[in-house]
User: Fold this.
Amino acid sequence: MTQHLQREIEKLKKSILALGTMVEESLRKSVRAFSQRDSEMARQVIDNDAVIDQMEVELEEDCLKILALHQPVAIDLRFIISVLKINNDLERIGDLASNIAGRAEFLATQAPVAVPEAIPRMAELVQVMLQNSLDALVEMDTELARRVCDADDEVDELHESMYRLVQHGIESNPSRIVDWIQLLGVSRYLERVADHTTNIAEDVMYLVEGTIERHKKSGEEAR
Assistant:
């Protein structure tokens, strides 16, 4: 590897981790805004989404320039491909954090509604999953990445349970139907965050091991 390419790779590492840190903060704030009915914090998350979007665009451009100018191979090529994919997943998590903040902003204007325990549990899980997926990237730790993937099952189960809880809530108090639908939306956004963190973890495994993990689990189950 030339020294110039090495410098560009190191710059990419710093950029993707900076984006990850910002996305983690947006997710944390969106969850707090929801739980604390804090419309001001929710608005901060929504306003900050444009910054995340711009970082994502700049990072993608940097990756494409390196591919064009240096034509990297082997581990360097895998790293850049992984950064491109992780970059996209982080931007989507930023969007989802903004969506959660939007729901939080609305719910803060309504009378308090009982939040099912499934939502704070999901929120806790997905925040840990995101942190672990980024730690796995820093440490090139495939075992930690696999734990992220395993945690996705619990998030899926919790989200599935929300449909029954929302149905019961609507039947018990039809006048709060809009609020219950908002809560279901928060659950759905958290479930999607878990999916994107799982994608990041799978990209870490691809980066380290050179194997594509996506869809492998469902294929094994089908057999």
